[in-house]
Amino acid sequence: MTREHLTDAAESLRTAAEAASDNAADRLESQADQFETLADADRGPDHGKLARHEHVLTEIADEEGGNVADHVDTALDSVRAYRETVEGV
Fold first, then answer.
1. Residue 73 and residue 88: Cα distance in Å, rounded?
2. Residue 75: pLDDT above 50?
């Protein structure tokens, strides 16, 4: 079962990586890969895992700013939309 919001987040992060500095681009690609894996996993991520991803992405957005931050914010919106469907906290 694909989790569309997580797939959307991965796509936004790949777009952000294209505009980012080398170090941030590598981190964004890694995050995108992880979201793609989570989107197709048998079981979706829990709130804790999503919170850790949100923290990393917020840090990258703050460091890079501009267009990169805009794309990361779009990815974060997708993550938060998915998170609303997760039971628990």
1. 24
2. yes
